[in-house]
Amino acid sequence: MSSYKDKKVISIGTVNELTGLSVRQIRYYEERELIFPERTKRGTRKYSFADIETLMKIADKREEGVQTYEIKRDMANDNKDHMIEQMLRGQLNAHFRLNK
Question: Which among 43, 52, 54 has a CA at the least distance from the CA of 10?
Fold first, then answer.
């Protein structure tokens, strides 16, 4: 079951209000493949609370002078580290019969 943070239900206008980022900035980060909103049948972008958190991290890094390609690289490394952690946890659970 997915968390409420992952449900894509927030419009770009609301994201703009919550983050203070312009609609153009939000779309730019999508173009740079830093966030991945869903699209409705009519093409409207929908974001999650997790997307908003990601956008705030991106904005903070941009204020520090970090380039978008560096942010994308760091996000990919973070995701890779998370996947490795999940795999190791699964192997430990299987080996020691945890979570039963």
Answer: 52
Q: Could you please report the per-residue DSSP string of 31-71?
A: HTTS---EE-TT--EEB-HHHHHHHHHHHHHHHTT--HHHH
The count of structural domains within the chain is: 1
Q: What proportion of the chain, given as a percentage, has pLDDT over 90?
A: 66
Domain of residue 19 covers: 4-96
pTM of structure: 0.74
pLDDT digits (tens, 9 = 90+) for 57-92: 999 999 999 999 999 998 888 777 667 777 777 777
